[in-house]
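Before any further analysis, we paired sequence with structure tokens, yielding the entry below:
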Amino acid sequence: MLSLTYRFMKFIGLNFSEEEYGQISFLFAVKRAFRGLMNAMLLKYCMYSVILSPLNYRKIRPLLWRVMGANMGKDCYIGYEVYLDVTHSDMITLEDHVHIANRCFLLCHQRDLSNYHIGDDYAKLGYNIRPIVLKKGCLLGTGSMIMPGVTIGEGAIVGAGSLVTKDIPAWTIAMGRPAKVIKVIPQ
């Protein structure tokens, strides 16, 4: 039986996945909505603010990501207009000295298309929710997109505009859509 909260959300036109939201309580829905709103406002500041500009990249943005729930190491660099998955920010881990260039996307969830058939309602599909781990000293180039379940290895470099759908080994350079290793960094 579906929860009263889920049935109410469906009644007012919110078409959430029954698998993920079918049994939620009213308190859970309110808590998640407020957390999402707070994280969205913090993310907006992180993306566009020029106030205290020199401190934004290495101090303010990493601090705000930590407040949003991301696991942050020391001395991380986060460029402007970097999107993190605000509803699953606690599943994002940045180890020490990670650099994320401008306009990158880090997504921890995507629709589960494994049981999607002709005539199905896409909005009713559940999600695959998996963590993202950026290991010590790795770099994401401008405009890169990191998909759920990906680990970028220590010292690895992801080229600008890359779509990373699989793990990238340590001390390699990867680029492309989808990203592939093009070089192993020598000793």
User: Anything to note?
Assistant: The CA atoms of residues 141 and 160 lie 4 Å apart. The mean pLDDT is 89.
